[in-house]
């Protein structure tokens, strides 16, 4: 059987590509910045992108490549680019096709760091954003578009709202408007969902979360679906000759991989937010158990969500696999294998109730993290979404009483016990 026919669980463990006699069974860490050549001509060809090969680890390193190839395969893309963090992945994904004077349409239910990036930091560089509700109709989303709109952005599972977006609706709008749909797939992970299968053009991840799974390493990755026509007049940087590279055209010279190639050879080269090989090695280790962890996260989270839904001290619970969730139908369609491990819940008693609940938990710690194997909690309004106005917090699904619970892979009875006791004590 060819390794290309493997199901995803086998791919995660075994990887792909040919077996070679005598190769290391675990992909090693290439802890090197540089690569040896004996001829300046070969190096010149590498610099001109006329030949494949490593020259300097800011732009490429074999361990990092192994991680990129694995993610590209899992997400069914034509190529991937690893970066130093999820933030670096999202800003690179945007800046690869947006410059001063351009505009982004984004769903409002996104991670606080990305919302800050769109709302204030990118604005200082002349890139503006309009936010729309994930429940907006196609017509309403289209009215947010301007002449200069270059991107439609959303998160598969909004962090922390835990709504599931309607990929097909976004893809129809993107096609009609001639702009790519970029989706941050962090909270679903490449095991629970592959947005490119539904027509999404670019996928990003914070690898820091489920891909690592152990709270040990920061990293991010962009995957190119290779399914967007960049030659539609809106993206001259990908089509017109690039004077920084002897007038090559990414679209003509790299075809389907135009977007991801440009991101590497211009933005990674110039901004330098590269992933280090040690973290790439940790992510490769993490991926080998991703399917097992996501199954357990999803199973435990559903049990915890059902318990919370019926608890008298809980005001509301957002978890996409609860029938009461407004995302239930989208979750059925796009997340058939599970709803992931994050629950957003509203504790009765407003902000004070939420803070007391967190303080009453014992071994479930308050941690600025999500996607970790260990169960942990966070109060988004006073942490990750702190910089947003109260109105914008509410639009992003962050109410004062909201607690984000990252349900880990421990025994669910222990998780339920700590939660039940904490609720009793408030
Ligand atoms: C954490 C997170 C990010 C940012 O990732 P870092 O690795 O922390 O930089 C981006 N998007 C989502 C959905 C996240 O959860």
Automatic annotation (TrEMBL):
EC number, as in UniProt: 2.5.1.49
Cofactor(s) demanded: pyridoxal 5'-phosphate
Xref: InterPro entries: Cys/Met-Metab_PyrdxlP-dep_enz, OAc-hSer/O-AcSer_sulfhydrylase, PyrdxlP-dep_Trfase, PyrdxlP-dep_Trfase_major, PyrdxlP-dep_Trfase_small
Molecular-function annotations in GO: O-acetylhomoserine aminocarboxypropyltransferase activity
Key words of the record: Pyridoxal phosphate, Transferase
SUPFAM superfamilies hit by this protein: PLP-dependent transferases
Family to which the UniProt record says this protein belongs: Belongs to the trans-sulfuration enzymes family.
NCBIfam families linked: OAH_OAS_sulfhy (TIGR01326)
Name of protein: O-acetylhomoserine aminocarboxypropyltransferase/cysteine synthase
Originating organism: Fusobacterium mortiferum ATCC 9817
Phylogenetic placement of the source organism: Bacteria, Fusobacteriati, Fusobacteriota, Fusobacteriia, Fusobacteriales
């Amino acid at each position: 059987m060819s390794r290309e026919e493997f199901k995803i669980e086998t791919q995660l463990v075994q990887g792909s590509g040919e077996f070679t006699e005598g190769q290391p069974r675990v992909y090693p860490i290439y802890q090197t910045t540089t690569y040896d050549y004996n001829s300046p001509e070969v190096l010149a060809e590498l610099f001109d992108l006329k030949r494949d090969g490593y020259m300097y680890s800011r732009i490429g390193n074999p361990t990092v490549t192994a991680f990129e190839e694995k993610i590209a395969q899992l997400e069914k893309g034509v190529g991937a680019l690893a970066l130093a963090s999820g933030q670096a992945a999202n800003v690179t994904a945007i800046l690869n096709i947006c410059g001063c004077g351009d505009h982004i349409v984004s769903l409002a239910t996104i991670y606080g760091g990305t919302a800050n990036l769109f709302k204030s930091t990118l604005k200082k560089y002349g890139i503006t954003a309009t936010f729309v509700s994930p429940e907006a109709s196609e017509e309403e989303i289209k009215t947010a578009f301007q002449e200069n709109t270059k991107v439609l952005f959303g998160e598969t599972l909004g962090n922390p709202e835990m709504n599931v977006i309607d990929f097909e609706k976004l893809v129809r709008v993107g096609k009609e408007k001639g702009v790519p749909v970029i989706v941050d797939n962090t909270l679903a992970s490449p095991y629970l969902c592959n947005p490119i299968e539904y027509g999404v053009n670019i996928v990003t991840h914070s690898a820091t979360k489920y891909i690592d799974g152990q709270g040990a390493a920061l990293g991010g990755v962009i995957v190119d679906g290779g399914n967007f026509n960049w030659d539609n007049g809106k993206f001259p940087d990908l089509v017109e000759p690039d004077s920084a590279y002897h007038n090559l055209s990414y679209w003509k010279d790299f075809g389907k991989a135009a977007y991801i190639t440009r991101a590497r050879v211009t933005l990674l080269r110039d901004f330098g937010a590269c992933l280090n090989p040690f973290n790439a090695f940790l992510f490769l280790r993490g991926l080998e158990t991703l399917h097992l962890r996501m199954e357990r996260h999803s199973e435990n989270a559903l049990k915890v969500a059902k318990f919370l839904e019926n608890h008298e001290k809980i005001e509301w619970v957002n978890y996409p696999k609860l029938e009461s969730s407004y995302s239930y139908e989208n979750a059925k369609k796009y997340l058939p294998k599970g709803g992931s491990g994050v629950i957003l819940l509203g504790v009765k008693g407003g902000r004070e109730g939420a803070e007391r609940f967190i303080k009453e938990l014992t071994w479930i710690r308050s941690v600025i993290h999500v996607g970790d194997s260990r169960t942990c909690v966070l109060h988004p309004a006073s942490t990750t979404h702190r910089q947003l106005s109260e109105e914008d917090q509410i639009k992003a699904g962050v109410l004062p009483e909201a607690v984000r619970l990252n349900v880990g892979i421990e025994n669910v009875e222990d998780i339920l016990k700590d939660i039940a006791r904490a609720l009793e004590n408030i």
